[in-house]
Amino acid sequence: MAQPSSVHLSQPQTSGLEVTNLVVSYEGNQVVHGLDLSVQPSEFMTLLGPSGCGKSTTLRCVAGLHKADSGTIVIGDRVVSDGANHVRPEHRNVNMVFQSYAVWPHMTVFDNVAYGLRRAGVAFPEVKRRVDEMLDLVGLGEFAGRGATGLSGGQQQRVALARALATRPKVLLLDEPLSNLDSVLRARMRAEIMRLHRELGTTTLYVTHDCSEALSMSDRIAVLDKGRIDQLGAPVELYDNPANRFVARFLGPANFIAAEVVDMRGDEIALVSPVLAGSPQFVLKDEHAKRSSLSKGAKVDLVMRPERLALRPRADSRLDNHFPAETIHRDFLGAKSEVRLRSGEVELVCDVPHGATSVTGTGETAVFIDPRDLTWVPREARSAD
Amino acid sequence: MDFSAHGRMPLEAGSRLGNALRGVLDYGAIGTLLILMTLFVGLPVAFVIISAVLNDPLDVTSGLTFAAVRSVYTSAEIWHAAWQTIAMSVLVAVASTALGGLLAWVVTRLRLPAAGFLEMLIVIPLFLSPLVGAIAWVALAAPRSGILNDLLAMMNAPEWMRFDVMSLTGIAFVMIFHYVPYGFLFLSSALRNTDANLEEASYMCGGSVPSTALRIVLPLLRSSSLSSILFISILASGEFSVPAVLGAQGAYEPLAVHLYEAIYGFPQDFSRATAIGTMMIIVSLTAFYFYRRSVRSASRFVTVTGRGFATRRINPGRWKFPILAVFGIYTFISVILPYLALLFICFTRFRTGDLATTEFTLYNVMTVIAQPDVRSAIFNTIELAMIVPAICVVIGLLLVYLHERLKLPGAGLATYIATAPIAISGIVFATGVFVIYIRTPLYGTVWLIAVALVAHYLAHTVRITSNGLKQIDVALEEAAQINGASRLQVLFSILAPLIRPSVFSAFILIYVFTVREVNTSILLYSPSSLLLSVLSWNYQADGSLAQAAVVGMVQTVLMILGIILARLVLGVSTTKSTM
């Protein structure tokens, strides 16, 4: 273990994390199938996915709380797990914030935060200095002497954060840390975690099933499904160019419209959607290399985010990216209205911002989407939504 | 970052050595536990069965014979006793579960003053051993000489109003009141773990309190009630002191009494004793099988969340005073009356006439205290009451930790063996211990009794500590580990302080059980390992009820002192020890 006292707060200890070909079983079932993940020093990486996708299991393998069947885990330049041998969690110099906070009820706030430093044999004056520093950092300076049981959920979460950061871990692991908080506290703690990450620069692996947490906090997101990474990238990249239907859906609401490629020129693709009223033609700008897998006649699903659709009074069939539709229902949600439309065989959802110019009422209308706002995913056999 | 460019540090050899060392320790612990469990739990049970078919029950090499088994299993008298044992045990279990359940519902669901105190009143009878309780009731309600009957006679009450505790109803009555606290502990913990919203939903739908109790609470508690009934049946079927003291003029002789007579009668017949033992094992194992099943299905209805449900209690309104009166009557019958009777006979000379001529005297107390036996019995009892809970708690904790936390293979088996004796009556288990260890230096020492009692009570500590451990979030330990604590440090800095309340309540429970225990020690004591409970048994067997009562009071004082000490020093609450 590195001498913790030799490092100062302002000079974060940055280490990367490299997971290679990780295979993990849990209670007899294989839940992670050959996962590769590379986290840069000081990066905030999020594992995003539904429950049972293997994200928490992966995190626990990095922590050393669960043993992988095979695959290597490297923290900094140190192999901590290679399938056959596993460094025990207490020797990995990582730390973790648990979903249930796991603040020890029989200790004071101070003792909770000091625990890891004491285990590392740090001398008392230094322990005191660093615990006070951490508690000030999370805004619990006055609570040091309090018992841990009387704290609110948000305060317990701060104690858990301070405790995890006090040991200056090479990698900070967070396992759905906000899921037990109410929505107001959740937003506040989200900002808090990001501020701490900015100030300390600790390499962070964050597990969540909440896409807004993932999108707002991460440098990069790895979307997991059924024990595999479906797509890994920056939040905006994932949102705008999902690799498949699952990623597109998981990051936010989306309309999927079946279409066929009719022409490809430069970075533009022309498609026709026979399922929409009037079989309209679409043009989309695809600046990514994804289109190299396409050829004329390929069947794809167009992805239309509800907030990118614009309603027009009347359809003009000569224009691309334009199709007639019928408004069937309108939900007023305050800042926006969610409008349910039908066009041809499909129903789709469109967000209309609330304001003086917004189109109201129901009946005949037209829908427009900008070529740069349109993207696509490969057609999948099962497309039950 | 390209790790291969500057080379990786391989897994260090230190952690491999550490892992290997831990493995040796783990499996060493499991192996030791398995051997201990086999030696002290498995063997005695096995030997009850083996000895029943040996020519000489104390010699394994003496060859097989089925004479004893045949004579027991074809005896009409024994079959009658078996039937009586089952009928009485089930009756006692149903009645005490019903009473205990009613009290549990009142305490957990109604808004009553001093609920904690009421709860304590319900469990106080646990401290009165069944033997001493039976002695008190003989003094109170023996057909001719009982104090209550004397009082009735003084009031010229008609003959049909007289009490007779030395009858079938009398035995059932004393046993039911002894087991009510068990039923209460079973059902109150089930009620606490059942979401009261289920009942509140019924009130919302227009259900009255009685119809909710009948249609919602009762069905929800069906499995827990069944577990309680089966558990109490097992205990009651092995209870030998109450029927032996009250006797019912031979109208009720359960298997346990037959077994006792085979060993202490003339001629002494161990083959017969072990053969009766096998029959008792069959009866209680059958009940145990259904008990395990009922426990499993009971957990279907239970929502274990660790935190209690915030329930709005029902205001009993004008029922408050009748309900409090019921508690008063219960306490009067189960605690005040027996202890008054005990005090009375402790301090009175043997009466020939009526109550009016009673002389108070210190004679009984003095004769008992003058006995050198008594001092050594007190010393032995205290020694045993320290050894047994301590060993039980240590082994129980170790088993639960290895099994439920480290999930080591073999730990499950060891736990299973350790909890099995709960299905075997104390007197039967003692028979097995007796035939194995009679030829060893252990025989005649307090340690032999300790072995039998540890094996018999281990199941309680395993259950209590396992419940305690289940309420501790594993993440608390993982958080310590990831903060750099080794496994031992996690054990001592996190687990030990958090599980302390369960450990203390297990200790207290076993302490009380050990002080009052007579079913096991009656077969295993020797003049050098006399216990208070055995002494009081012997006094009453000689007809010296007063001396037996004095010894019984000393036992009670020991239990109360132990509990007060635990409360003051350790801060343990006794009523919270969940069954």
UniProtKB/TrEMBL annotation, chain A:
Keywords of the record: ATP-binding, Cell inner membrane, Cell membrane, Membrane, Nucleotide-binding, Transport
Recorded GO MF terms: ABC-type transporter activity; ATP binding; ATP hydrolysis activity
Membrane topology: Peripheral membrane protein
Chief location category: membrane
Transmembrane segment boundaries: none
One GO term describing the cellular component: ATP-binding cassette (ABC) transporter complex, substrate-binding subunit-containing
Origin: domain of life: Bacteria
Family: Belongs to the ABC transporter superfamily.
Name recorded for this polypeptide: Iron(III) transport system ATP-binding protein
